[in-house]
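user: can you give me the structure for this one chain? tokens are fine.
assistant: on it. calling the predictor now.
[tool input]
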Amino acid sequence: MHIHILGICGTFMGGLAALAREAGHQVTGCDAGVYPPMSDQLRALGIELIEGFGADQMALKPDVFVVGNVVSRARLGDGSPKFPLMEAILDSGARYTSGPQWLAEHILQGRHVLAVAGTHGKTTTTSMLAWILEAAGLQPGFLVGGVPLNFGVSARLGVGAPFVIEADEYDTAFFDKRSKFVHYRPRTAVLNNLEFDHADIFDDLAAIERQFHHLLRTVPSTGRVVVNGLEESLARVLNQGCWSEQRSFGALVSDFSAEGDASDFAVLQQGRVVGRVQWSLSGQHNQLNALAAIAAAEHLGVAPAQAAAALGEFQNVKRRMEVRGKVALLGQDQGEVTVYDDFAHHPTAIRTTVDGLRRQLDKAGKKNQRILALFEPRSNTMKLGTMKAQLPWSLEQADLAFCHSGGLGWDAEAALAPMGERAQVAGDIDCLIEQVLAAVQPGDQLLCMSNGGFGGIHQKLLAALALKAG
């Protein structure tokens, strides 16, 4: 089969392309501003990439066009279509489908699908679960919205029955407004957490809860639903009806709970110690992610002790507290400035990421080291300003905060005013770097948070710091 993918450089569609190629299909694709790292990965697989969405791509005559949710019926200022290829597909009557639908029909059918859903931690938990199953010899397939360092790729078919997938609640396509995860038909479903997000497509939290319940409706009676026992929103979802075995985690009375620090803790099953996780990760959010993965893996017969031991070898995911470099200011051995890259963009994720770093520093006896939080409100929800009032709360544990306000339709300075002199705002990356350089001190931790490339700020910061160090 020849498939042509519209929007191929996104993390999900790029992963789908890699799976299709591995499965023996001919794969081509297009995107606006074909960009690395996904473009490099796809070209290495022999996948032809085309710049833009021109109607001339109809000449490829694929068996089916696979349409990403970046594509719409939008019009430009002159009235011409933003996506001429999509208009040509519709006009010609050519066969087309969504990415999740194609994946369900050609990759997931007949597999034991383990789907990880939630507002936060999907990528990390999916990666943990895939690694646990790999360590147990189950050779799972997976599709992750990031690159698990244990595997070095974001997707693979695998040879065993299990297939682990990051289950996104974002809509499927412009012609299918259901959440992506409704297509996956999991036998094991993880509901990691649930907060309001994606304000561009959901009116309120209840609308997202409805989609989560649609997911529950697809889990068979012999399946398992793994649910965070700390989340009231998920309790409401379950109360709408659940027809499968349930396992809870997180709360003291849950099936799976933890005792100890987030980097070294005992795993309890119904109050009894059944394993121990000792790893380099920090933050309660990662402790909860681990419990979710352990509970899901048990559904496939992996003992919690075995799962916990496997997590000791878990290397995290690229762009999750990833150290991009260190620079020693003024030649001081103890004065290294560390630059991190993290994917956090929702206020809750920002708060847990900053808090996790603070706890990590405190535990290491570095309480005097400052955290400088650099972030850009880049997601559709944040661009709309829906959660701007939560930003000061999310940055409480940061000593200083620097916000890139370029492209926002709301006043970032006003939103961050409760932080006083601890917060600064810049309209472009170069100005932001100047602000940071004026404030940075030996030993500072520079935490860069964005769900985009952040204008290459990490390397620019490291270069500027090296110049400052002389």
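assistant: here you go. The domain at 322-469 is CATH 3.90.190.20 (Protein-Tyrosine Phosphatase; Chain A). The longest strand covers residues 272-278.
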